[in-house]
Amino acid sequence: MGDNSANTRPWYLKLHWQVLFALVAGVVFGWLAPAAAESIGFLGDLFLSLLKMIIIPLIFTSLVSGIASLGNARSVGRVGIRTVIYYTVSTTLAITVGLTLVNIIHPGAHLNLAGTEHLPEGFSTATQTLPEFLLRMVPDNIVAAMAAGEVLPVIVFAILFGLFLTRLNGPNVDAVQRVVDGILEIIQALTLAIVKLAPVGIFALLAREVARSGPGIIWDMRYYFVTVGAGLLIHATVTLPTILWVLGRRQPLVYARKMAPAIATAFSTASSSATLPLSMECSEEAGNRRGVTSFVLPLGATVNMDGTALYEAVAALTIAQMYGVDLGLGQQALVLVTALLASVGAAGIPMAGLVMLVVVLQAVGLPLEGIGTIIAIDRVLDMMRTATNVWSDLVGTAIINRFEGGSS
Ligand code: ASP
Description:
By secondary structure, the chain is an all-alpha fold.
């Protein structure tokens, strides 16, 4: 679904420039005219709804069609194993950067305990056990899972459906495959149309966010903000580009520019799932094979969250420092493992990472009420970690694409 005229058009008609402009204009508008920004917020919600509308059919059809194009269970297994290795390594690197910075900067020493008396509303201390998590992945009712927009069970069903489709032959099965491919083509054309609205959606969402939060609160929590922000920045601009360059053989800057619409959408929506249609579009546009794109990205949007994992580790240690608790190396290793698991368990929706922080805090016996303090700047950190999450998925796609013999 490439756009052949893309190179001949003037720069201001190119999506990545429009998106960058929307980011800057959104911040300025939200700052200067908060009331107007609030009233145009519905345009952003509209963009978000359009994206959410196509997520489930897109995941299902692209996975089935992608698996069919990979050919057989063995290729799917190979891509699957490589994908899981990439997810684990990149997320562990992200957490390591976060832990290093939080030990150097000590943001918790600069925060007070105001707001820690009560656990914020909506937080449950009942965390999921691993068997519960695995059970949730296999839907007992696929229609209910689709209706509820639960991505992971739909992915599992689509993978099984695709695998069995490749094992069978005959006119009926071929007809099903053609129908799935046809629906995918239609959904992709629809995605392309929605993507054109990204600059408007990004502008409106960001302007409202700036109008609501304001910069004052960030200043009050600057040490914590800088720790998370610097960690994400190092991971996104040093670690991931290095892996991309060495293993994926891509020019990081060129690749990042092609991914700008997806990254900016992740930033303004704070939702990896809602960004999925754009990530898939950008990835195919950049030449990644459909079989790889449609496998790595939907799965990555729900389980590969480098930014979230980094944030979980920094937040947990910040809370420990706030309470004057000194976590030793063993305890920090436990934070690393639980942050990794919590990031896998977090859904690709706003604030999911903050909710999953409960898991990490419980693992090392820290008071959950600490969440009450750091929640104040969660939204802006959520935007930053979501952009990192999506960027990591896209880097992984390029790497696995290369190992699968695709273009680089
Ligand atoms: N909002 C993040 C995402 O969608 C998850 C999180 O809250 O960390 O990727």
